[in-house]
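Dear colleague,

Thank you for sharing your sequence with our group. We've completed the structure prediction you requested, and as agreed, I am returning the results in plain text so they can be pasted directly into your records. Please verify that the sequence below matches your submission; if there's any discrepancy, let me know and we will rerun it promptly.
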Amino acid sequence: MHDFDYERPVSLVEALSLMARHNGHARPLAGGTDLIDQMRLGRHQPGALIDVKRIAELNVLAADADGLHVGAAVPCCRIVEQPLVNQQYTALVDSCRIIGGIQIQSRASVGGNLCNSGPAADSTPSLIALQGVCVIAGPAGTRRVPVERFCTGPGQNVLQPGELLVEICFPPRPPHSGSHYRRLIPRNEMDIAVVGVGAAVELDESGRTIRAARIGLGAVAPTPLWAEEAGALLAGQPADDVQFARAAEAARKIVSPITDMRGTREYRIHVTGVLVQRVLRAAVARARGEAFTYLPGH
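Please find the predicted structure tokens below.
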């Protein structure tokens, strides 16, 4: 690994100052579970690492009248243990539980997973489904970007030199709502999704009609996708398999997967539709307060 400077700021102001001082040659370090490996392989050779784990704003995990705030450096293990997230933002918990093993989850953060901007990232479809918004700080001030617009290509995103992702905000979940994330992997020892789907639904008081739905897709395009039309088709419709199949077909139409060692393009298109239906059924079951079981990764 190449030589680099290591900085450990204790405030957001200090971190932004260090980022500016290194003039685009520094990278923030949260868990480092992706970044350190990429540096070893020579994919990234930053002149400095800015360790953001001690910055209060990046370690927030709390809810208020505006919804849920998840700091960019909050490790997955804290999210999984948070009661409110388990009750209302279950798709996020589903994602965090399958990002690596226990040791990885103690370091890896959802913010880091998003900033790595991998097309197959397990957390991003859930963030999209739950209407996550990125809060970004930089030399020009603070700006907000919906998660579905954050990634711009494989390993690329909207962050400009000197900017940091501070937190991801989610609106309050409405009554009679539920969410779920599920992926397909080729075998248990290959921890990368062939397809990943996150969905969030809101039902009416009867539990039979869908008021609103959002669907996020991963590993089926150069960036994670918001299946906007698929979700819109479900609004005002019965929460049944006929409507789930319609949404699945709409989702298939927007994907543009590649063929690689994990699956062919045709297979990924097919699996997209299958998972959309399964995830919607699970999200509806949760919205109704029903129990369901599934094998993570399938």
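Summary note from our side: The domain at 5-51 is CATH 3.30.43.10 (Uridine Diphospho-n-acetylenolpyruvylglucosamine Reductase; domain 2).

Kind regards,
the structure core
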